[in-house]
Specification:
Blueprint: H1 3-13, E1 19-22, H2 27-36, H3 43-54, E2 63-68, H4 70-73, H5 83-89, E3 93-97, E4 102-104, E5 112-114, H6 120-129, E6 134-141, E7 144-146, E8 149-151, H7 154-173, E9 177-184, H8 192-212, E10 221-224, H9 239-253, E11 260-263, H10 270-281, E12 290-294, H11 296-308, H12 314-331
Parallel strand pairs: 1-2, 1-12, 2-3, 3-6, 6-9, 9-10, 10-11, 11-12
Antiparallel strand pairs: 4-5, 7-8
Helix pairs in contact: 7-8, 8-9, 9-10, 10-11, 10-12, 11-12
């Protein structure tokens, strides 16, 4: 483990005004997104769509890294350039999703544990040769009730925290920066208080396990959920409440020497996720840079425009990607406002 290399890479991932695009949707998830906009989902259409995004002129102003899927990191752009090289030539760090998905947790109905540790050391070595500088592992934490019990259960939180820590240790052994993503789902009718409790318990356990495994915080990034009421909750959270409660849980649980925190959007509206990030960055200096690692909150309008005519709408879709990336870049600096959305090209 070269801690200097890890720390430098992690610092670059959260450099001022820049964030990460999550383009690591599995083929199944990608099919759902493509089906929704009427595009056939094949290996070639996925390649065309993602290459269109990565070749956007000027995107490197706002984007520090892109999380790729296994299929994508092996693909080439139309001119034969490996996709990882397309990104690297722009100064954008290529990353890779390495977990194999969330599966049912035995004896715990409606809870999941993420798999993918088997063979991970060897896969990381291969991904490094393909150009990956960082990796991502996502765990899924559900709030609610199941079989008469409140969830998340201790068993679910511990199983996922332990897996995350072992993954992160293997990444750092390979000089690859781990993104740690314990996602607390915002589906359901839970209150913001219930979300805070689940997030706090999860993050405490995750960082305890990371410490047990010897993972260096300065060479790791947290991909965090925002603390927010569930989508079906009777009382929805205000922008101020989300920013306040999210910062409160992070300051209570996250080591001060962690390299940085990027947020997932988790199904929030595009502008909603941007506004929440902006408010946090307007709330005073934090121990870590706070930025974004959005998938849908950046890609939704991009995919919609591209799907209307994949050949003719390349520039229009790229303009939208540049616009949404710029909005989130401004939010990562506390400089975003609703007024700026009037200038967007869609």
């Amino acid at each position: 483990m070269e801690i200097n290399i890890l720390a430098q890479t992690a610092k670059a991932m959260v450099s001022a005004g820049k964030g990460i695009i999550a383009a690591d949707e599995s083929s199944g998830t990608c099919k759902k997104r493509f089906d929704a906009v009427g595009v056939e989902c094949t290996e070639e259409t996925r390649r065309q769509y993602r290459t269109m995004m990565f070749e956007t002129p000027g995107i490197e102003q706002y984007i520090s890294g892109v999380i790729l899927y296994d299929e994508t990191i092996r693909q080439k752009a139309s001119d034969g350039t490996p996709i990882a090289d397309v990104l690297s030539k722009k100064g954008i760090l290529p990353g890779i999703k390495v977990d194999t998905g969330a599966k049912d947790l035995a004896l715990h109905p409606n809870e999941k544990v993420t798999e993918g540790l088997d063979g991970l050391r060897e896969r990381l070595a291969e991904y490094k040769t393909l150009g990956a500088k960082f990796a991502k592992w996502r765990a899924v934490i559900t709030i609610g009730e199941s079989a008469g019990r409140r969830i998340p259960s201790e068993a679910c939180i511990f199983a996922n925290a332990h897996a995350i820590a072992r993954y992160a240790a293997l990444c750092q052994e390979a000089d690859i920066v781990p993104i740690i993503e314990p996602e607390v789902l915002i589906d359901g009718d839970h209150t913001i208080e219930q979300c805070f409790e689940a997030a706090e318990t999860t993050l405490e356990e995750v960082f305890e396990e990371l410490n047990h495994q010897g993972v260096a915080p300065e060479g790791a990034i947290l991909k965090a959920s925002m603390v927010i009421a569930g989508k079906k909750a009777a009382k929805q959270s205000s922008v101020e409440e989300v920013a306040d409660q999210t910062l409160r849980v992070l300051n209570a649980t996250v080591p001060k020497n962690l390299a940085g925190i990027v947020f997932l959007s988790g199904g929030q509206g595009d502008e909603q996720a941007t506004a929440h990030l902006n408010k946090m960055n307007q709330s005073g200096k934090q121990p870590w840079p706070l930025s974004f690692s959005y998938s849908r909150a950046i890609q939704n309008p991009v995919l919609k425009k591209w799907a209307e005519n994949p050949k003719a709408n390349v520039k229009a879709a790229q303009d939208i990607l540049l616009s949404r990336s710029k909005m989130n870049s401004l939010a990562s600096q506390g400089k975003y406002s609703d007024e700026l959305e009037k200038e967007r090209p869609y």
